[in-house]
Amino acid sequence: MRTKETRKSLLAAALGPVAALAVGAAAPAPAAAQAVNPCAPAAVAPTNPCAPAAAPANPCAPAAAPAQTAEAPAADLPKGPYDTTTKYPQAVYGNQMPNIVNNYLRATPYIGTGGVIDPTGMPILKSLGFKTIVNLNTADEGATAEEALARQAGLAYVNIAVPTTAPTAGQVAEFAKIAEDPAAYPILVHCESSNRVGALWALYRASTGVPAMIAVEEGRAVGLKTSREGAVREALGLPAL
């Protein structure tokens, strides 16, 4: 352990150069050094008449590059609803979904599907990474009230009300714009039971060139039931059930 005297000695040694500088600064300068020398370097660098003249500005010289500001790189957007070559956030798997969306499934890595949403669940959906809610219910089924809850939670919201057995061609086209917009991902599309979701999905997939019967089978996988499949098959030119 260092004694008090040792610590004093170390402190004195450390302060020695500082004290010497202070004494030197306080001592009067020799008379010769005090004479004004126009060619001597000044302490505060006034204009030196003996210094070479500064080169004039070159009007043809390229302008200095602006300072670069470091920015976080933008997320690498996927090229479509099935592109998993990027690290863009995907819709959660069913085992990661709390009990707030009935019949929850994933139609694609970026599009979740389901039935009715618990009214208190919007902030949870936001925390799970969803950006857009697409509701196929009508105003009488609570679509207007749900919009307020979704927007309050910071989610984008689209209502494509489907009161008929199957969505119309215009509604399918409206959904296609959302489903194929990576900036909207991840998306959750829902209705009351997921039956309308299955109908919409089958018609949407057929509109992208998927064979009609395969499109119907995809629709069944996310909720299409026989009560709506007849209208879907008719729209696709398929035989009746």
Please give a quick description of this structure:
By secondary structure, the protein is α/β, with parallel strands linked by helices. 37% of the residues lie in helices and 8% in strands.
Instruction: Count the DSSP helices.
Output: 8
What is the C-alpha radius of gyration, as a whole number of Å? 37 Å
What low-confidence regions span 5 or more consecutive residues with pLDDT below 50?
Answer: 1-35, 61-73
Oligomeric state of the chains present here: single chain
Overall residue-averaged pLDDT value:
81
Folded structure, characterized:
- This protein is globular.
- The chain has a 5-stranded mixed β-sheet, with helices on both faces.
- It has a domain at 95-112 and 126-236: Protein tyrosine phosphatase superfamily (Protein-Tyrosine Phosphatase, Chain A).
- Residues 1-35 and 61-73 have low confidence and may be disordered.
- The chain is 37% helix and 8% strand.
- The chain is built from 8 helices and 5 strands; from the N terminus they run ααββαβαβαβααα.
- The relative contact order is 0.10.
- By secondary structure, the protein is α/β, with parallel strands linked by helices.
- Helix 5 packs across helix 6 (195-207) and helix 7 (212-221) packs antiparallel against helix 8.
- The longest helix is centred in the first third of the chain and has 23 residues, at 4-26.
- The chain has helices at residues 4-26, 31-34, 122-127, 143-152, 169-179, 195-207, 212-221, 226-236, and strands spanning 105-108, 111-114, 132-135, 156-159, 187-190.
